[in-house]
Design brief:
With 278 residues, this protein is an alpha/beta fold. The protein has helices at residues 17-28, 41-51, 55-71, 78-88, 96-106, 138-145, 166-169, 173-178, 202-223, 251-254, 258-276; strands at residues 5-9, 35-39, 118-124, 129-133, 155-157, 160-163, 183-187, 230-233.
């Protein structure tokens, strides 16, 4: 292992629980980051490890994920979704519960004050471009990076509006390489290798379009490796029955397999690291 170690955490909504299992495996192997990069839900998971790069912090993150169902971060009832949609006309869920969770976890910490350098990406609406948050309030940056179009509201920061980082760089391996990482550990949610099918409904059109947007840049980065940079794509483990469908599962039903996802990713990543990590 040579050069700075970067953890790259990708997007994927409730499927992001898999990244917790990968973090547990990295900690168990004594691997710590010099840089953490996050996109969408990976920004939340990445912020947690950048704020406290110890196994105990990952244990707390695991408990946070297990409790998400009860905390109501994603409303589940059709009534609640319709009410939010009618009021906003742009999204189904409020980000108030997610903001409250982040405030409890991080307080008013600034990105530049985190123990481990941390960056997360969001899509600027006005500039139609990626924006990397490297300074400023951590909570606002994570909310911006996690603002899934149509599900959560755009986040306004200094007069600019931001949507989910997955639109512009869902698994930012290239950013880690540009930032001088010598070893990159890629934590993802397991949809990357699942084939897409032509959409059959308006909803599937939106989902498939988003999947294409979030995958292509990651695949390009893997197909054009940088000399001297070791990239390790950690496995999630075998998916549960029926998980081959790449559609997102938000709401409480989508959080029901949290512990299973964490454990599968942990076991698979431990096996991978035992064979490949120095």
């Amino acid at each position: 292992m040579s050069g700075p170690v970067a953890f790259v955490l990708g997007g994927g909504g409730p499927l992001g629980a898999s990244e917790v299992g990968m973090l547990k495996a990295l900690m168990a192997r004594g691997i710590r980051p010099d840089l953490v990069l996050g996109s969408s839900v990976g920004a939340l998971n990445g912020a947690a490890v950048a704020a406290d790069p110890r196994p105990e912090a990952v244990d707390r993150l695991e408990q946070l994920w297990i409790s998400l169902r009860e905390r109501g971060v994603f409303a589940d009832t059709l009534f609640a979704q319709m009410g939010t949609a009618l009021r906003s006309r742009t999204h189904l869920f409020s980000n108030a519960a997610l903001r409250g969770l982040l405030e409890r976890e991080f307080g008013d910490v600034l990105i530049e004050d985190l123990p481990v350098p941390f960056e997360c990406v969001a899509a600027s609406i006005q500039r139609a471009a990626e924006h990397w948050f490297t300074r400023g309030p951590l909570i606002e940056a994570v909310l911006a990076s996690s603002a899934v179009p149509g599900l959560l509201p755009p986040v306004a920061i200094d007069g600019e509006h931001f949507l989910d980082g997955g639109l512009v760089d869902s698994v930012p391996v290239g950013r880690a390489q540009d930032r001088g990482a010598g070893t990159v550990y890629v934590l993802h949610v397991g949809r990357i290798d699942q084939p897409l099918s032509p959409p059959r409904t308006p909803r599937e059109v939106a989902v498939v379009a988003f999947e294409i947007a979030r995958r292509h840049r990651f695949v390009r980065a893997l197909n054009h490796p940088v000399a001297g940079v070791d990239v390790h794509v950690l496995p999630t483990g075998a998916p549960p029955r029926g998980a081959a469908d790449p559609r997102l599962r938000y709401g409480r039903r989508g959080l029901g397999l949290v512990q299973d996802r964490i454990e599968r990713a942990y076991q698979a990543s431990m096996s991978y690291l035992a064979e490949h990590a120095q």
